[in-house]
TrEMBL record:
<protein>
    <submittedName>
        <fullName>ING5 protein</fullName>
    </submittedName>
</protein>
<dbReference type="GO" id="GO:0005634">
    <property type="term" value="C:nucleus"/>
</dbReference>
<dbReference type="GO" id="GO:2001235">
    <property type="term" value="P:positive regulation of apoptotic signaling pathway"/>
</dbReference>
<dbReference type="Pfam" id="PF12998">
    <property type="entry name" value="ING"/>
</dbReference>
<dbReference type="GO" id="GO:0003682">
    <property type="term" value="F:chromatin binding"/>
</dbReference>
<dbReference type="GO" id="GO:0006355">
    <property type="term" value="P:regulation of DNA-templated transcription"/>
</dbReference>
<dbReference type="InterPro" id="IPR028651">
    <property type="entry name" value="ING_fam"/>
</dbReference>
<dbReference type="InterPro" id="IPR024610">
    <property type="entry name" value="ING_N_histone-binding"/>
</dbReference>
<feature type="domain" description="Inhibitor of growth protein N-terminal histone-binding">
    <location>
        <begin position="5"/>
        <end position="98"/>
    </location>
</feature>
Amino acid sequence: SVPGIENLPCELQRNFQLMRELDQRTEDKKVEIDGLAAQYIESVKNMLPEERVEHLKKIQSAYSKCKEYSDDKVQLAMQTYEMVDKHIRRLDADLARFEADLKDKLEGSDFENPASQSLK
């Protein structure tokens, strides 16, 4: 587990988990592509033209799947960024409100107003 992630909202944890899974699927698919390519190079001389085409289609299909996983991960990363950005903006707004409330309370108290203290 990544340090600090347990403190993030559940949806962020879920997104990071999904991104890790997409990474793993991409890595597995790359291993499969390497195997298919090695197999093709090894036996291309003995293949019929239609067998070559079929094998190359398998490789192309695996690459397409890899791209699909990567695109999904980019989408997920963008959603996650938006989510974090929204949380930060909310925190900024809460902090601004808190500071304004604190300022109002301090100005309304005797703490910052020595004139009202001397009247008493």
